[in-house]
User: What shape does this take?
Amino acid sequence: MRITRTRSTGRGLITGLVTAGLLVSLAACTSAKDDDTTSGGASAAVTAGTDGTDDGSTLTLWTRAPLEKQANLLVDAYNASHENQVELTVVPNDDYVAKVGAAAGSGGLPDLFAADIVYVPNWVKQGLFQDLTAQIDALNYKDTINKGHLAAGTQDGKEHVLPFVLDLSMLFWNKDLYKEAGLDPEKGPADLTEYVANAKAIQALNKPDTYGTATGLNCGGCLVFTWFPSVWADGDQVMNPEGTESLLASDTATSVYSAWKDMWDAGAVLPSSKDEAGPTWTAGFTEGKVGQMLYPATLLSSTTGFDVGVAGIPGPKGGASTFVGGDGIGVSKDSTKASQAWNFLSWMMSEDAQVEVLAKDNDVVSRSDLADNVYAQKDPRLVTINTVAGQGDTPVSLNFQQAFNAPNSPWLTLVRNAVLGDGSSVDPDNDEITAVLSQ
Amino acid sequence: MTLQTARLAVATSNKRTTVSRLRGWVYAAPTALFVIVLFVLPLILVFRMSASQWPLLAGDQGINLPDNYVNAVDNRFFWDSVRFTLKYTVLATILLITLGLGLAMLVQESSRWKGFLRTSFLVPSALGLASASLLFYVLYSPLAGPFAPIMNHFGWTFLGTPNAALASTLFLIVWRYAGFYMLLMLVGLQAIPSEIYEAARMDGASRWHTFRSITIPLLKPTLALTTILCVTGSLLAFEQFYILTKGGPDNSTITVVELIYSVAFQGQNDLGVAAAISVMVLAALVVINVVQLRAFRGSGEN
Assistant: This one.
């Protein structure tokens, strides 16, 4: 008896120690070496010719999973036409920040890496990207490169980041369902009031498993991406220019929430939207079960099987805007092959890559002078998307992730209270966002 | 001459002890090395981190001692996550221990289905917790899951409300771990000599009486082990909530480890504060384990 008891006691202790050790290693697995980390954005400037070096080096590139398709196309086309070879690593969306953070701390970043454009200002400030000002300024088409992306990567007048893939939020509608509901399939809603009316009209069809609209009410990133443009479309702002104060309790923002609350209460929103944390937020529309949706333009090529109309996202009073999202890309602070990496970047911005790779695949081009290209001309929807891209916005703030994208962000609390709750706590919830932004 | 011999003898025996002592160290070295590299060093690092300003992307910025601990306790989810973790731990422990014991007693009886039952209870334990969570994520999905039509019909979802999300996660945990605890209990039950049961039967003890006066007291070491395993494991719950609920709905299912993860990697990106919470959890675990061990030992001696 005595022996058994001591043994189990010992085992319990060991278990406790082992689990504690695991916990410690969880927190410590991103241990950072302090000496090789630049903290003030004092990164070395890249010196390379306009085209960089193509000498058969192997370059590493990281991107996150949502842009896998575009990244694969670009990398394959580059590898086929160049001596340099790019090795692409695709990381799950939720793990990307942790992976980059760990690599940044230990000096193990790849030569090139893409970053969600809303995180770029912070990452540039932390010195994760090398200074590319001289190279970017030498591009004769510099003025046509998407301004939102360039601005997000500019710190103290130094440019660090180029647009990798643009992802715009657009209003998509299912023309087949519009026809069935007696709506004009060639004309999208002009303002949010019409959007609500159309959603209810489609819901009134009472088709099984078919809903007026859908969104991700538990997905801060989705809501930022699709609801901010409604505020911008009315000429309002979501944050002050410094990105330290939230303006999301304005009259315009409040009318956006009440429009969505109206649709939710009327049962015109796909029910799974309530718990949708992101992974399947576009599935309903892609399957043809949702009448209209604020939707990422990069997925245009995956909506097959029914006819789709595309327009800019309207505000409560009309207008059109879009969230110029997607990823920026730059040369990492740890790269020793900056000149070779620049070769990839300058090729990526060239007409060859923008038109023959991205536009050919129905993706948005990052240069306004190439917006009206041969492929876009075949599909008027692409011209619409490329045009609205110029009217869009990219919000810039250092604490963007914590305030909006994180699963426990105050923005998510605000939206859920305003749409699923009674909508009375917009002001205090907005103050909570400001508190996080101004840290 | 005698003196010399004596001195020589002392020298030889000294040499012999040194050699055997050295050999002992050599034998222990591999384990000691593992412990130092995988346990002691990370532990020192996490203590250091918890005392330093240490952003994820910028690295160590120097000591700022009480700040991280103050910020950790001031975090708006700190007390909520502590409360939720304790609630989850109590529920998970009660469910797993009772079910584990119940299943063990069920399959201990010799019957035709014994092998089949044991295997089917144990199979889920062969699945990693993260894989199991992903499996249930799809099962619970109101969009893609097999129960989607039922959920739509009743306007209810598995992860939609705080209580439903907790219950759904507990179900996953019970499904995944009940077999494992059954196995531990089974080992304990089989260590009880059958003569004692026979004697009890001869004395005319009822089933319930046998269970209360023989099974439970003789199973105490096993119960202590399983309780400590279960409590410690539940206090460190992470994967199941990270995958199934992401702390939602409305931040109602944030566990302490999830809070550590989100402070470190999702937004705040502050390893210092995350390490401070880790140190607090470590201290709490040590205290809880000591108390549990004392309690089981104390009642065993009476």
